[in-house]
Design brief:
99 residues, two-stranded antiparallel sheet, 5 helices
C-alpha cells in the first residue's frame, strides 16, 4: 500500500487500489511528455492540459508507484479528467510535503 513517508498516494481506479508516486523517473517522464524542463513549466502545461497530457502524467505517476500494469491499461479505465487532475495535484503535494 501507499507509504506517505515516501510521498506515495493511494487511489482507487475503478475496482483497483493503486499507488501514485512522483519519483525522479516519473518526473523525467512527465517532463518529456509535456516538453517541459522545470517544475514551473510543468505547472503551466498542467493548468491547460489536454486529456492525453493528463493520462500521460497519471501513467508516469502510476509507474513511479510500481503500477506499470495499471498504467498500461489506463486509457480504458474509468478516470475523469477532473479526478485525474485531483490525483496529480495530490501526488505532487505528497512528494513535496515537508512533514
Amino acid at each position: 500500500m501507499a507509504n506517505r513517508a515516501r510521498g506515495e498516494l493511494a487511489v482507487r481506479i475503478g475496482e483497483t487500489e493503486a499507488c501514485l508516486c512522483l519519483t525522479l523517473g516519473a518526473l523525467a517522464e512527465i517532463q518529456a511528455a509535456l516538453e517541459a524542463c522545470t517544475l514551473g513549466e510543468i505547472a503551466a502545461r498542467l493548468s491547460s492540459a489536454s486529456p492525453a497530457d493528463m493520462l500521460a502524467v497519471l501513467g508516469a505517476l502510476l509507474r513511479g508507484g510500481r503500477q506499470a500494469d495499471l498504467a498500461a491499461r489506463l486509457a480504458g479505465l474509468p478516470v475523469s479528467p477532473q479526478q485525474a487532475a485531483r490525483w496529480i495535484t495530490d501526488a505532487f503535494e505528497a512528494a513535496l510535503d515537508d512533514d
